[in-house]
Amino acid sequence: MASAANKGFMSNSGFVITDAGVVVYDALATPALARGMLEAIASFTDLPVTHVIVSHYHADHIYGLQVFKDAGATIIAKRNGKAYINSEHAQQRLQQRREALFPWVDGKTRLIGADIWLDFKTAPRYRLQVGNTALDIIDGGFSHSPDDILLSVPSESVVFAGDIFSSGRLPFLVDGNTKVWLQSMAKLAKLDAAAIVPGHGHASTNPAKDIELNTRYIRFLRQQMGTAAEELRDFNEAYEAIDWSEFRVVPLFEAANRRNAYHVFLEMQQALFEEES
Ligand SMILES: [Zn+2]
C-alpha cells in the first residue's frame, strides 16, 4: 500500500529511449517520484521525454504526471480516463492522498488530463513512431479499470501491462471486469513478449507462466463464484467451503483473495440477473 513511509513508491513505471526522445509509461504516485525518474532518465540520455502513456487513472500511477507535463511531454491516455478526471471521486481521492501521503502529495499536486485521449473505436491499437522506434499503444479493455492501456515495444519484445497483469503474485480484481480481463490475458499471450512489466512487483521474464497463473486464478474464481451465485448461496458460507489450496501458496493471497472472491461473486450475480431479465 502507498504510505508516507514508503513515499508512495509501490508502483512501477518504465521508459523507452529512442533516437528522438524518451517515451515513459506511467508517472508514479507522487511528483517527487516523477522528478526522481526524470533524473534517472537524464543519467542515460540528454534527450527529452516526448510522451507519457497513462496505464490507467488510479492514484498510485498518476500524481507524477504534472512533472512530465511541465517538462513538455505529451500525455496520452484512454478517453474513459477523462470522466474520472472530471469526477467528484477523483477530487476525493486526491484529497485523501494529500493527507495520507503528505508531504509527497500536497496542495500543489494536481490532476492532469491527457493531451491525446484515445478511444480505440476504430482500431484496437495505435502505432506511435518516435524516431526510428515503433511502439504500440494497445487497448486493455475494461479489465482492471475503464481506461486500461498497454504499451508494447516490439523491437525489444517488452510489454508494459499496468495493473492488468501480475507476476508471481495474485492480482487485485476489485473494480475490474473479470470477463474482459480474461480476454486481455489472451491478448497479452498473443503478443508473445520476452518480458512483461506489471504495474506492481517485479517484471516477468516468463510471461507465459504468469499469464497462465493469472488466467487460471480468474477462471477458478468465476467458476466457483458462478456456482455459488447460481445456487443462491451466502457468500461467506460459499467462500469457506472452497478449497483454496492451489492459490493459498501464491503471494498476496491473504491480502487479495477474499476481496477478489467477493467482487467476482457480485459480478456473477449481476450476470445472472442480466441473463434472466
Ligand atoms: Zn490500478
The CATH H-level homologous superfamily of the largest domain: Ribonuclease Z/Hydroxyacylglutathione hydrolase-like
Per DSSP, the total helix count is 10
- Beta-strand residue percentage: 15-25%
Give the rounded overall mean pLDDT: 96
Bound molecule kinds, no repeats: zinc ion
Order of helix and strand elements from N to C terminus: EEHEHHEHHEEEEEHEHHHH
Number of strands: 10
Q: What is the CATH topology assignment of the largest domain? A: Metallo-beta-lactamase, Chain A
**What order do the strands of the largest sheet run in, or round the barrel if closed?**
1-2-3-4-5
Low-confidence stretches: none
Shape: globular
Cα-based radius of gyration, to the nearest Å: 19 Å
Helix content: 40-55%
CA(first)-CA(last) distance: 40 Å
Number of domains: 2
What is the class of the largest domain in the CATH system?
Alpha Beta
**CATH architecture descriptor text of the largest domain:** 4-Layer Sandwich
Largest sheet: 5 strands, mixed
Structural class: alpha/beta
How is this structure best described in words?
The chain has two domains: 1-164, 4-Layer Sandwich (Metallo-beta-lactamase, Chain A); 166-194 and 202-277, no CATH class. It is 41% helix and 17% strand. Helix 6 (178-191) packs antiparallel against helix 7 and helix 7 crosses helix 10 (253-276). The protein has helices at 31-42, 59-62, 65-70, 80-85, 88-100, 178-191, 207-230, 235-241, 245-248, 253-276, and strands at 14-17, 22-25, 49-53, 74-78, 116-118, 125-130, 133-139, 149-153, 158-162, 195-198. The mean pLDDT is 96. The strands form two sheets. The chain has a five-stranded mixed β-sheet. The longest helix has 24 residues, at 207-230. The structure holds zinc ion. Zinc ion (ZN) binds at residues 56, 58, 144-145, 163.
